[in-house]
Amino acid sequence: MINKTITINEETINIAYCTDENYLEYVATSIKSIILNSSSKLSFYVFVYNVTDSEIFKLKSTSKLIQVIEMDKLEVDKYHNNFTIKHLNRSTYMRLAVPRLLSGKVDKFIYLDADTLCFSDLGDINKVDINNVVCAASHDALTKNDNKNAKRLGIESGHYFNAGFLYINVANWVKSEVEIKANKILLDDGKTLPYLDQDALNIVLNGHIKFIDNKWNFIYNWYTEKQKESFFYDKVTLPKIVHFTGGRKPWFVEHDGLAQQLFIFYHHFTPWKNNPLRSYKEKMRPTDYRVYSRKNWRNKKYLTSVTWYLKYLRSRFK
Question: pTM for the complete prediction?
Answer without folding.
Answer: 0.88
